[in-house]
Amino acid sequence: MAAFVLPELYKESSDITYVGAQYMLEKYKNLIKWKEDASIFEFGVGDGSHSRQLLWPLFPRKYKEFIATDLSKTMVDFAKNNQSASRAKICNFDITCENVPYDYRSRFDNIFSIFTMMLVRNPEQAFKNIHTMLKSNGQTFNIFPLTLPTDDIYMKLSHHAKWGKYDHKVMVTPYSSQSHPQECYEKALRDAGFRNYHYMIQNFCYMFKNEKEWKDFMFSVNAVAGNIPAEEIEEYKEYFFELIDKEVLLEDNKTFDSEGRKCRFVKLRLSLLEAIKTRD
Ligand SMILES: C[S@@+](CC[C@H](N)C(=O)[O-])C[C@H]1O[C@@H](n2cnc3c(N)ncnc32)[C@H](O)[C@@H]1O
Q1: pLDDT of 174-225, one tens digit each?
Q2: Which Gene Ontology molecular function entries are recorded, alphabetically (predicted)?
Q3: Which domain holds residue 272?
């Protein structure tokens, strides 16, 4: 399970996900179907900042409730202290759980996720649960990269003699080995019972402001970091960045800015997956 463990570092360095989500929301927020007294749910809320900055301003004024959840207890605890004057109920929840709690069934008008679906190990189960949790005519709205430029790195780490025992496959996006990942997501959605949906893709490119932001972000989204013993973490970091430096974004890593500094780019294919539950 890709439960994040470094909320503070993620909060400080995750401008890339803020800018990416903002870009997609600007383009597609008109597709969101609101009800004045909406029951709203979010999974993968992380440290809570992007939910607060990007989603909350879109909520109807008199919404009924907002439940914000994350797989990681560390992120949930951090998010609880990171929300000012919030009406959000923040709690621990795995969107791929085997049995959806009874009081979550047919309860929500809107279910959101931002930069989370690509880390959900079992999208088929996630979409089934989302379908179960939505009311009739309820809508799910998800922004996420189709695959990640780090997929090969984590696959390589999962076979490494020393680091392979820490389950790096959790960080590999679910359909990275498929030639048409979008079709896999759409199939999972249809199999879960969704008939009415839109799947849009936009190319997105982010340039990190400096080496520190790039390194902090890359490490903050490494869910495996929490499993590495403290005495080995520096050695692990060194190897991790060596790999990333060599193998990710090679072409762009050759680019330098006007002052001769290395520019770090990430290119993503951002998905917007919006679906409505048309019947129970
Ligand atoms: C990249 S962060 C995105 C956080 C936040 N939405 C944002 O935009 O900054 C992905 C989050 O998804 C959570 N996550 C991963 N798998 C999950 C699952 N199966 N159910 C719920 N949350 C999950 C991780 O713990 C992490 O906090």
Answers
A1: 999 999 999 999 999 999 999 999 999 999 999 888 888 989 999 999 999 8
A2: S-adenosylmethionine-dependent methyltransferase activity
A3: 7-276
Give the Å distance between the CA of 3 and the centre of ligand 1: 7
Is residue 41 in contact with ligand 1, taking CB distance under 6 Å? no
Please provide residue 266's backbone torsions phi and psi, each rounded to the nearest 5 degrees: -125, 130
The rounded distance, in Å, linking the Cα atoms of 224 and 212 is: 20
Residue 1, domain member (yes or no): no
Spatial distance between the Cα atoms of 280 and 274, rounded to a whole number of angstroms: 18
**Ligand 1 neighbour 42 (Cβ under 6 A):** no
- Count CB-CB contacts under 10 A for residue 8: 13
Domain CATH for 112: 3.40.50.150
What is the value of pTM for the model shown?
A: 0.94
38: which residues sit within 8 A by CB, 6+ positions away? 59, 60, 63, 64, 109, 110
In a domain, 227, yes or no: yes
- Asked whether residue 158 is assigned to any structural domain, the reply reads yes
Residue 4 Cα: closest atom of ligand 1: 25
Two tokens, residue 5: 């463990």
CA distances from 3 to 69, 70, 73, 96, 241 (A): 12, 8, 8, 12, 21
The tally of domains found in the chain comes to 1
